[in-house]
Amino acid sequence: MSLLEDQYSDSKNFMARVELTRKFKTNPYSWILWIFDQIHFPNKARVLEIGCGNGLLWKANLNRIPEDTHIILSDFSEGMLSDARRVLNGDAERFEYQVLDAQEIPYPDNSLDILIANLMLYHIPDRKKALSEISRVLKCDGALYATTFGTGNMREISELVSAYDDQIHYSLEPLVGAFGLENGEKQLRKSFKEVKMIKYQDSLEVTEAGPLVDYILSFGKVNEALKGQKRKDFESYLTGIIEKEGRIKITKDNGIFIGTQPK
């Protein structure tokens, strides 16, 4: 099963991940607003977001978008783009939508001011090619804004799953190993002369088992292993921990890379 079929045919799995953070974050200033704070919009900016998901970044920041900005929302999933159109329906004139492969961006050289890749570069099979494409389409004074997470992100979840059943494997290591806070700068410097990393401070204090289970099951292989009664048993297991400890504390380790002066 492909990544598209497994996790991103629509925004259901994506929203399970968003909802856990929304409900139980300890930082009152949300990640999605913080990302937008980092973005510098020049006059009449042309913006491309790759892997836009359901358009949540833009919905949450609609009143902050400069009026002269042209925004292209792209994803490799038509289902995701359909959800983005629905979420942003009342503001259709601001946005253009396109199914797009980040490894072959169909725009001319030096044609975009901003490119946004929010929690998605680790999914791209040929990341070197994608980053080369990104630097190609950006103007000489353009910028890439790429978010990701580090090795400590959500580490307690892996421990919880293993403690419940050591035959079930849950790990974000393949993603962070592909493009994480620890190794992203080295990859980006092959395509950008200047790279800066900024970290976002947050953690989770989870007081309900249901949203945590939904988050864990948004990853396909775990979903297969925790079907039916086993899901109910796992939720009861987590509920027991919460009743005993008062909450489940989870580490967050997120940040953004800003790449400028494309090569």
Automatic annotation (TrEMBL):
InterPro entries: Methyltransf_11, SAM-dependent_MTases_sf
Gene3D superfamilies assigned to the protein according to its UniProt record, in alphabetical order: Vaccinia Virus protein VP39
Chain ranges of the Methyltransferase type domain: 48-145
Family annotation (Pfam families): Methyltransf_11 (PF08241)
Keywords, comma-separated and alphabetical: Methyltransferase, Transferase
Source domain of life: Archaea
GO biological process annotation, one example: methylation
Keyword Hydrolase set for record: no
GO-annotated molecular function: S-adenosylmethionine-dependent methyltransferase activity
Listed PANTHER family: 2-METHOXY-6-POLYPRENYL-1,4-BENZOQUINOL METHYLASE, MITOCHONDRIAL, METHYLTRANSFERASE
Protein name from the UniProt record: Type 11 methyltransferase
Source organism phylogeny: Archaea, Methanobacteriati, Methanobacteriota, Methanomada group, Methanobacteria
